[in-house]
Amino acid sequence: xxxxxxxxxxxxxxxxxxxxxxxxxxxxxxxxxxxxxxxxxxxxxxxxxxxxxxxxxxxxxxxxxxxxxxxxxxxxxxxxxxxxxxxxxxxxxxxxxxxxxxxxxxxxxxxxxxxxxxxxxxxxxxxxxxxxxxxxxxxxxxxxxxxxxxxxxxxxxxxxxxxxxxxxxxxxxxxxxxxxxxxxxxxxxxxxxxxxxxx
Length: 199
Ligand SMILES: [Zn+2]
Known about the structure:
Layout (H helix, E strand, L loop, with lengths): L1 E2 L6 E2 L24 H7 L1 H31 L13 H4 L2 H30 L3 H6 L1 E5 L7 H8 L5 H13 L8 H6 L1 E5 L8
Antiparallel strand pairs: 1-2, 3-4
This protein binds zinc ion (ZN).
């Protein structure tokens, strides 16, 4: 059975357009029977694709954390962004530390979003994706733009949204490389090099 990459509805095997949402079904673009999760369980190349995606975002997150730490140190504005060293009196409170980590996470997430949004909107990739050999592309073949990049990256402002974005993408029928937001705006991530992470 064949499904639309965008809305997940069942389509004819030779259909050029999705009868429900009108999406173009050019070539083999995301038309496949199983959901992303089923492919992830059974297909080594899909496992590799997502392992590379995870690696790329870990690299990007590490870059963001390092840059934030350097900025905080160099410009000595630690208290402004909640990175200050606590006095022994306040640091004894678990709630203080919870707040400290929450502030760190919130700033890092915001910067990760802004960085990914600009890098993918302008260059089609982040540094992490460049290193891992991944590229963000539009399904319609046009070059990446800031609007598409904004939509596909907005879930990065909060880790739980990103997890949901990926889970809904993989839980539905369609192109296996798409998060839900990719499906919504018509983008996908393509591997440009060969790399084996899961042997
Ligand atoms: Zn459709």
